[in-house]
Amino acid sequence: MTTASFSGSNAAAVAAAKTVLITGVSKGLGRALALELSKRGHTVIGCSRAQDKLTSLQSELSSPDRHLLLNVDVASNSSVEELARVIMEKKTVPDIIVNNAGTINKNNRLWEVPVEEFDTVIDTNVKGVANVMRHLIPLMLPRGHGIIVNMSSGWGRSAAALVAPYCASKWAVEGLSRSVAKEMPGGFAVVALSPGVINTEMLQSCFGASASAYQTPEAWSLKAATMILNLTAADNGASLTV
């Protein structure tokens, strides 16, 4: 792995080409990160439930034929199991996994959040991360190295009213990441990464029009890509922020 001593454009120049799996790649942070990594010469394995957006993204990636975009529901164990099968078949085991797929409840007090909405947040944000790690870590282990980035949130380290299901899910991601980090052999890192406050659809659902005051996913991806590419085994178990 490249060491973390480089920064900015230097890191992009010196980082060896990597294969990066990104979940939730059809919009927001996942989409921006995929585009930025492809510009830097890396190979993207992207997954989402939105086939039309995957098709659109494929054409926008640099060297489109180099990348693999698949229709996957991370909340479904069998869907992620099939993702792992395809990755093995195509011999494209990732060097880095970015568990980015996520959702948030509509602003509401806990007792007013529909049970189906609560379940969707937990199934996507927690079980989705676990499903990907369950099926992809065994593929990475024989290589002796790998980085797993589980997207957390400032609300995975603090709390706010009206988003209790989301806060609970991101606190779970923090705990899950720290625990799995202790289970990994040398050469690997599992980290929880808070992206900071970004103007995404999820932020807009909480903040409304004031979300526009925050940076765009495209601006965020410049710094995030460099940071993620330069993570090493020394970062194992860390809770980081872009």
TrEMBL record:
Record-level GO cellular component terms: cytosol
Pfam families recorded: adh_short
Alphabetized InterPro entries for the sequence: NAD(P)-bd_dom_sf, NADPH_pterin_aldehyde_rdct, Sc_DH/Rdtase_CS, SDR_fam
MF terms in GO: oxidoreductase activity, acting on the CH-OH group of donors, NAD or NADP as acceptor
One example of a Gene Ontology biological process annotation: folic acid-containing compound metabolic process
Alphabetical list of Gene3D superfamilies matching this protein: NAD(P)-binding Rossmann-like Domain
Family under the similarity heading: Belongs to the short-chain dehydrogenases/reductases (SDR) family.
Record-given protein name: Short-chain dehydrogenase/reductase SDR
Source organism of this protein record: Corchorus olitorius
